[in-house]
Amino acid sequence: MHRFFNFFFIITSALLFLFIFYRSEIIWSGNGREYYYIYYAVSIILIIFSIIFLYTSSIIKTYIIIIFFSTLISLYSYEAYLNLTDNSVMEKKIKLYKESGKDFDTRTIKQVYNDLKKTDKKASVKVSPLEYVKLKDIEIYPLSGVSNSQTVYQNENGYFMIYESDRYGFNNPDEEWNSEEIEYLLIGDSIAHGAAVNRPDDIASQLRILSSKNVLSLGYSANGPLIEYAALREYAPKNIKKIIWLFSENDIGGLGYELENKILTKYLKNLKFTQNLKSKQEEIDKMARKMISISSKSNQKFTFFRFLKIYETRKLLLKQDQISEIYSLKNPTELIKIIKLAKEYAENIDAEFYFIYMPIKKFFDKNYDPSDYEGIKKIIKSLNVNFIDINNVFDREDNPLDLFPFKMFGHYNPEGYHKVSKEIFDLTTDK
Hints:
This protein is α/β, with parallel strands linked by helices. Helices cover 52% and strands 10% of the residues. A hairpin with a 4-residue loop joins strand 2 and strand 3.
């Protein structure tokens, strides 16, 4: 048995080191190397430990093997607990919702989608543009979802967000594209998308109501700054008065992925580059529906590998909000370039440009590290961009978490969206 473990520890630790090197230096070409430092350190320690193990006595080896398996069992037990806790959070939400006299929709996204398909064959599920980022064999890079379709998103407030997408796959009434003038154009991620609420509770709808004018949103779930800028280039009409960039702190991490995509980086290298996506919606629809089909079949496999990699435990122990997010503000060169280009785009079409910082729940946690927030604020002000800090909305609340679903992690609830939209309107409207 000891001979087996002599080889097992050496081979396993060596393979782990090679895998980390492959991810850090080949997949990511050295970008975000700091993210992998801790993993390099762990793998090197394991290699040293494996060599020492060869020369220890049989009794000590036995104790080490027992400790190893005890630790392994403990880690996976804790990982299982963290995954089960997610379910208990949902159960808590259901209980709170029922106490308010309402029914919580307990179906899964897949079940809602299948139910919609019974009466509407064109129904679809939200497909984030970021899902295409690692595909190397695609000829175009979609920046939106399926067009003219009942689209299912997620359930955070007790009900599923379901919206009728417009001609280009965004969350807008389609007739907004026929407007002679657009008062507000929103770019951003899930908050600009309207995540967790239905119309008219999303920001775009609220701005339509408050301004009595036309509003378009190019926001989509999981977008990072480069996808947001690309969407601006591809879809923004020229008749815009105000461009509103809704920025959430978790947008920063996705930029690491985007900068590795050859199609997306063309928007930075060539200011005349375009994919002409408006004329390719039929192809985009086909690609999105294929992604929905693949995702439906691979959900269980994906969950299993997350468990195998002790995803939740690493996220907690390493204090990383997203294991996959490797871009940081320590070298913000590309982020600065993107914001400058977006500002110049607005100036070229004679539109006002606003950068709006949208806080997420972790901002109000006791252990929150404000360094990224302060870094973003400093960057925007150095670029002479109109900066609006939506934290002011939450500062006026007795309990800021009242504006989040069930006071838990997620996007805003309807009240939160209404107050945020009113602040944006007030601060971007001439008195």
